[in-house]
Amino acid sequence: MKNNLLACVVVLSLSGIANAEAPAVAKPAEKPVAVAAGAPAAPAGIQTMNCAEMAKATLPLPAKFVELMTAVSEGMTAHAAWVGAGKDKASKDEAASFKKLAADQKAVAAATKKVVTDMEAATKLAPAPHDMTKADPKGGERALATAKLEREMAALMIKHAEDTEKMVAAMGPKK
Question: Is the full-model pTM beyond 0.85?
Answer without folding.
Answer: no
